[in-house]
Design goal:
It contains nine helices and seven strands. It is of the alpha/beta class and 247 residues long. The protein has one domain: NAD(P)-binding Rossmann-like Domain (Rossmann fold). Strands 3-2-1-4-5-6-7 form a seven-stranded parallel sheet, sandwiched between helices.
Length: 247
């Protein structure tokens, strides 16, 4: 099991879904964890109070708002002079066929998912370069690899994050900083809970491993890329999709 003992890790969008599982797994594996929430402070505080260990905290953050990003990063750096790991997990969807997609729906997804990853990463990068260490993990999606009808905006944002990550990995490898992606497939979260049984069966029928993943499985893979067990891996996208897409 990858050990994160003593590492300080910041997770965006960490109050629910896959992000909350990451926060729980990282803390259980010995890390000090800080995470962001967008609006539900009550949910964030509930998660925070249940974490094992000490030194954890949460901050409010809207990744589409540059001033919010700057404020959140400042709050983190007031408590921690440097971080060992950054997970860019926050994201939104605004699904719709392109012919009917509003410009605002396209912009919202790009601003939050892709531009938000840029803003948060840039904000922490200077301290990582100074420390000559760090692991950045960006959460993308199988949709960014395959495309999906009705999700052109989302697919573009996630594919863009992969290209962004490979480019950044080249820039900072000599400084001891690694940059990788996790591309989840269908994961059991609030988003899949609303699907009908027929819809879930249709999804599972296309997955070679014949099941939807638990969020803890994405968290475990992310934990590996944050740990020293992966210290010679950078510029890579690790798919966690049960064989749905193999590249």
């Amino acid at each position: 099991m990858p050990v994160l003992h003593g590492k300080k890790i910041f997770v965006t969008g960490g109050s629910r879904g896959i992000g909350a599982s990451m926060v729980q797994v990282f803390a259980a594996r010995g890390a000090q964890v800080a995470f962001s929430y967008s609006s539900r402070e009550d949910a964030a505080q509930k998660l925070l109070s249940a974490l094992p260990g000490e030194g954890h905290f949460c901050v409010q953050l809207n990744t589409s708002d540059e001033s919010s990003v700057e404020k959140a990063i400042s709050n983190v750096q007031e408590k921690w002079s440097e971080i060992d790991g950054l997970v860019n997990n926050a994201g939104v969807t605004r699904d719709g066929l392109l012919l009917r997609m509003k410009t605002q729906d396209f912009d919202d997804v790009i601003q939050t998912n892709l531009r938000g990853t840029f803003l948060v990463t840039r904000g922490f990068l200077k301290s990582m370069v100074k420390a000559r260490k760090g692991s950045i993990v960006n959460i993308t999606s199988v949709i960014g690899q395959t495309g999906n009808a009705g999700q052109a905006n989302y697919a573009a944002s996630k594919a863009g994050i992969e290209a962004f990550s490979r480019s950044l990995a080249l820039e900072v490898a000599s400084r001891g900083i690694r940059v990788n992606c996790i591309a989840p497939g269908f994961i059991a979260t609030e988003m899949t809970d609303v699907l009908t049984e027929d819809q879930k069966k249709s999804i599972v029928d296309n997955i070679p491993m014949a099941r939807i993943a638990a969020p803890e499985e994405v968290a475990a893979a992310t934990s590996f890329l944050l740990s020293d067990d992966s210290k010679y891996i950078t510029g890579h996208t690790l798919s966690v999709n049960g064989g749905l897409f193999m590249n």
